Amino acid sequence: MTAIRLKLCASAFALCNGMAFAAEPYASTYQPIPAPPTLIEDAIILTGTGERLEGASILFDGGRIVAVGAGVTEALAERQQVEVIDAAGRWVTPGLIDVHSHLGVYPSPSVGAHSDGNEATDPATPRVWAEHSLWPQDPGFPRALAGGVTTLQVLPGSANLFGGRTVTVKNVPSTSYQGMKFPGAPQGLKMACGENPKRVYGKDRMVAPSTRMGNVAGYREQWAKTQKYIRDWAEYEAAVEEGDEDAKRPERDLGLDTLAAVLEGEILVHMHCYRADEMLLILDLAQEFGYSVSAFHHGVETYKIAAELADAGVCAAIWSDWWGFKLEAYDGIQENIALTDRPDGSCAIVHSDSSQLIQRLNVEAAKAMTRGRRLGLDIPAERAIRWITANPARSLGILEETGTLEPGKMADVVIWNRDPFSVYALADRVWIDGAAVHDRHDPALQPVTDFELGQQLEVSP
């Protein structure tokens, strides 16, 4: 907004806020598993960039993709003891990415003691972080891995206007959530519009918000407080630089730390929102306060505003066919994803919001592809695969690292036993950062959580 605000980002405020604040206290401790160079030969490769390569090869080494198609032979000559996999007749894709999951914060078994996704004590709880509820022992993680999911964003629930920070994780076994955190991935802020917050807090009509206009007023109040918080810190920093020893340091507010980082563009907004009119309203709100929406989640009416979303560069994370389970979902249609996925820079995503659907994101994408084709749209596999790979990576701010099979990117790779858009498709083998983490034919590579192992009872003779 001003020169003071720009100076603020490089000063003491940045040390206790935004990305620096997010990274320092609870940094990722994830380390890729050491693995040998691996060559997959003679596969049908969907790169996630819009390409389909027939009878092609992919080589990865040191956790990164070295070559895909052209250049593999030359790169291979420089390496020894390469594991070679014959994938004739099988398909290879990037690891799947679920942009909307509650694994770990609503883990199995689904009991009250595990219900850690909604801090439903205030309509605005940007101070909470989903990662502080994440239980790595959730059996849902290895089940998602068996479905080819290598990366996922775990979010708080949607009870609140501001639900808290999200976390992006690698789908690897770990005793701590830090061991799963995707290195360098931006944090997100979960927000929610529509029925959920007004229903949770307006039950007796004595607690705000109880209406949609109360929702919007709640957003605006928090963003206005955040702007003042930024100004207070900027003025304090300016006074300190001018040698004012009596300058009063503003009181730190953990929730406003999060919201200030959003306004600085360092935390991405992921917004639970169903109706087209409300999504357009949120875009106006974002313009008013100077932030961007990374993705609307659950947007069953995004087909009505596909052009506007594409123009704004906002992704739409949506189901293949969920509709009608509440009034704001009534206008959902099965062609939504196909109609939202336009050739002019749009960003359609298939998401799960479910511990079951995350196990078959490929089938959910296939359903959406089929409905689009029945409309007469040309949706080949190389286009649809982007809905569960490149596009979610884009919305999470990690497309430079994963989401496509390109040299230099993380070797997050899946071999399927057939066309991944077949209802009979199964993930044969899965690699994360070039390390084999799942093999459908090898029990040693079928991870089981400690929780699933249970307890051994001693029986007296």
Number of beta-strand segments: 16
Number of domains: 2
Largest sheet: 8 strands, mixed
Predict the CATH topology of the largest domain: TIM Barrel
Task: Provide structural commentary.
- This protein has 461 residues and is α/β, with parallel strands linked by helices.
- The chain has two domains: 31-95 and 403-447, Urease, subunit C, domain 1; 96-401, TIM Barrel (Alpha-Beta Barrel).
- 28% of the residues lie in helices and 20% in strands.
- The protein is built from 15 helices and 16 strands.
- The chain has helices at 3-9, 12-15, 18-23, 72-76, 140-146, 195-201, 212-241, 254-263, 276-289, 306-312, 336-340, 361-374, 381-384, 390-396, 450-453; strands at residues 38-46, 52-61, 64-68, 83-86, 91-94, 96-101, 149-154, 162-170, 188-192, 268-272, 293-297, 315-318, 348-350, 413-416, 427-432, 435-439.
- Strands 1, 2, 3, 4, 5, 14, 15 and 16 form an eight-stranded mixed β-sheet that branches. It has an eight-stranded mixed β-sheet with strand order 6-7-8-9-10-11-12-13, with helices on both faces.
- Helix 7 packs across helix 8 (254-263).
- It is globular and about 65 Å long.
List keywords for this structure.
eight-stranded mixed β-sheet; 2 domains; 461 residues; 28% helix; Urease, subunit C, domain 1; 15 helices; globular; disordered N terminus; 16 strands; single chain; TIM Barrel; alpha/beta
